[in-house]
Amino acid sequence: MAVSNVKLLGNRPSPFVNRVRFALNLKSVDYEFMLENPSEGKSELLLKSNPIHKKIPVLIHKDKPICESLVIVQYIDETWSDGPSILPTDPYDRSIARFWAAYMDDKLVPLLRSLADATDEESKAAVLEKTTGDLALLEDVFLKCSNGKGFFGGDTLGYLDIALGCYLGWIITIQIEINKKFLDETKTPALVEWAERFKSHEAVKGTLPETEELLPLLMMRKAAAAAAAQSSEPSD
């Protein structure tokens, strides 16, 4: 069997790894998925390939490592240019897509982590309100970018679809665990419909992790957060 010249270091639950997998699937790129198991520590290949951050994902193409999920997605789009375009072709539209992708990572990710770690109803309610507001803003972004079509990218899956869609598995799992919806039909109806289209896309099916896989990981994270909060409380 021929050795693939495209390798991806990562694991299934990571939304950032799945971003890269969606892009590779969309471009029909064959690759070797090299699993990094957190319980076993970081592999020598990961430490060698990403010596600065020492994090997944890392794409290795022709023995050259590329790091950071959004950077990797752009690299995939430019390298396999004969496949469906991921970023918009217009320079202004490309800049807008990059802006909102960065916004999602800067604003939405910390909120999702805070929701996952929340140990009391008061803090959970405050974070939930902020998360709902952020998603309402992204609802408006979707309506503007999609031009009435099915995806942020219009008729086809694009950069912002991949940037936001990678979080869907965790969003659904967190909603189930806290028994509250922040992506719901009343406040973000267009995003709810988009989420269903995204999950059923051929580049996504079988790659986006299911709740059954993520819920045990979420519960482990919550237990660790609760233990850390308890240990930080001043003793009598």
UniProtKB/TrEMBL annotation:
One of its GO terms (molecular function) is glutathione transferase activity. Its EC number is 2.5.1.18. Keywords: Detoxification, Transferase. GO terms for cellular component: cytoplasm. It catalyses: RX + glutathione = an S-substituted glutathione + a halide anion + H(+). InterPro entries: Glutathione-S-Trfase_C-like (IPR010987), Glutathione-S-Trfase_C_sf (IPR036282), Glutathione_S-Trfase (IPR040079), Glutathione_S-Trfase_N (IPR004045), GST_C (IPR004046), GST_C_Tau (IPR045074), Omega/Tau-like (IPR045073), Thioredoxin-like_sf (IPR036249). Residues 90-217 form the GST C-terminal domain. GO terms for biological process: glutathione metabolic process; toxin catabolic process. The keyword Transferase applies. Residues 4-84 form the GST N-terminal domain. PROSITE patterns: GST_CTER (PS50405), GST_NTER (PS50404). PANTHER family: GLUTATHIONE S-TRANSFERASE U17, GLUTATHIONE S-TRANSFERASE, GST, SUPERFAMILY, GST DOMAIN CONTAINING. Belongs to the GST superfamily. Tau family. This is glutathione transferase. The lineage of its organism: Eukaryota, Viridiplantae, Streptophyta, Embryophyta, Tracheophyta.
